[in-house]
Design brief:
The chain has two domains: 4-140, Rieske Iron-sulfur Protein (3-layer Sandwich); 155-341, Naphthalene 1,2-dioxygenase Alpha Subunit, Chain A, domain 1 (Alpha-Beta Complex), CATH 3.90.380. It is 21% helix and 30% strand. The protein has helices at residues 22-28, 155-158, 175-182, 284-314, 331-354; strands spanning 4-7, 33-39, 48-53, 56-62, 68-72, 86-87, 92-93, 100-101, 107-109, 126-132, 135-140, 163-171, 207-212, 215-220, 230-236, 239-246, 258-268, 271-280. The strands form three sheets. Strands 1, 2, 3, 4, 5, 10 and 11 form a seven-stranded antiparallel sheet that branches. A seven-stranded antiparallel sheet has the order 12-18-17-16-15-14-13, covered by helices on one side. A four-stranded antiparallel sheet has the order 6-7-8-9, with no helix packed on it. A hairpin with a 2-residue loop joins strand 3 and strand 4 (56-62). Helix 3 runs antiparallel to helix 5. The longest helix is centred in the last third of the chain and has 31 residues, at 284-314. The two termini are 42 Å apart. Residues 5-16 have low confidence and may be disordered. It comes from Aeromicrobium piscarium. One of its GO terms (molecular function) is monooxygenase activity.
């Protein structure tokens, strides 16, 4: 079962040093999107943590009451990093000159010059934030007046009929490689052939793209219920994610197929924060049995599969998605690339027009 809480944030303060280009958007991620930033458990009440997301540094700040904020990691006075400052419960104090900034990005105190014009000004960029499914999400605006839609969690994470675990890793690979990997179900029959769940099924297949009102399915036409046979790409309310299922045998405990919801969040152009939610459709006592079985037996096996993906993608060259020789199995890869390239071009034009 999932709960979702939202915390509106001012996002009109702060500017980019220059309009983001198509190349920068493709390298560090589209704006006007919700992205998971960190697992909620990593920032407890009264704590703060520096992160890099979409190529910029941010301060994830949770006040004493538990409310979370994501601020640009720059003091509005001299751009000193707020992340090495002091947590004051409901604000952060810059270590350099003592300037205090609240969760909305408003300067509340300038000890060196009380009453100066900086006090009361929203001078630090503060992102709109929401929490759900064990993660902190932030809306990364394309322009100063971008407005975030309500965060809508993926179906498996919002449903009371599913239970899930959040898995968080960081990979030294571009974020687009993660999407290419998931939109390529055929790799399961080879890279993961010795895994506990993907050893069944043929090593040849035909695929098709099936359109939906929120994205598309990329699926095998001649096999179902044997391996990694399909993946859905979803984009709704500014959140993009992939959803897939892998069949499980009776020895994996109660519940139907094993589901994965995946979202890559760019850290830099060559490093990615990967969020996986591992799910099954179980409730009540069956959910408790599955959760116990997962933590004691299955989680280690799932890490082994994820490590196979990590090792492969981290060893790709940074230009490995150029000059390839794609074939029918790669329709999903080609489709997702075209979508993001078109979106980056459109967004770059809009940003340049409003910069």
């Amino acid at each position: 079962m999932s709960t979702l809480t939202t915390a509106p944030r001012v996002n009109s303060a702060g500017k980019n040093s220059g309009p983001l280009t198509v190349e920068e958007l493709q390298a560090t991620g589209l704006r006007d999107h919700w992205y998971p930033v960190l697992p909620s458990r990593l920032v407890k009440p009264g704590e703060m943590q520096k992160v890099t997301r979409l190529g910029k540094d941010w301060l994830v700040f949770r006040d004493a009451g538990g409310r979370v904020s994501v601020l640009a990691d720059r003091c509005p006075h001299r751009n000193a990093p707020l992340s090495i400052g002091q947590h004051l419960g409901d604000r952060v104090r810059c270590q350099y000159h003592g300037v205090e900034v609240d969760p909305t990005g408003t300067v509340v105190k300038v000890p060196g010059m009380p009453g100066c014009a900086l006090e009361g000004k929203q001078a630090t960029l503060s992102l709109e934030v929401a929490e759900g499914a064990g993660a902190i999400f932030a809306w990364f605006p394309a322009t100063p007046d971008s407005k975030a839609p309500e965060l809508k969690l993926p179906d498996r994470l919002a449903s009371d009929e599913h239970t899930h675990f959040l898995n968080y890793v960081e990979w030294k690979a571009p974020w687009r490689y993660y999407l290419d990997n998931v939109l390529d179900p055929m790799h399961g029959a080879f890279l993961h052939a010795d895994s506990h769940s993907m050893y069944r099924g043929d090593t040849t297949a035909r695929f098709r793209i099936r359109e939906t009102d929120r994205g598309f399915f990329f699926e095998k036409t001649d096999q179902r219920g044997q391996n990694f046979d399909w993946v859905e790409y979803v984009e709704q309310n500014g959140l993009s994610y992939v959803d897939l299922e892998i069949p499980y045998g009776p020895d994996a405990g109660p519940g139907g197929p094993f589901g994965i919801v995946g979202i890559p969040t760019p850290i830099t152009e060559n490093v990615t924060a990967v969020f996986h939610w591992r799910t099954r459709e179980v409730t009540g006592w069956e959910a408790e049995v599955w959760r116990f079985l997962y933590k004691t037996t299955l989680e280690e096996k799932h890490w082994e599969v994820l490590e196979q993906d990590r090792m492969m993608l981290e060893n790709f060259a940074v230009d490995a998605d150029q000059g390839e020789h794609l074939y029918q199995h790669d329709l999903g890869v080609a489709r997702i690339r075209r979508m993001f390239q078109a979106a980056a071009r459109e967004q770059a034009k809009r940003i340049a027009g409003e910069a």
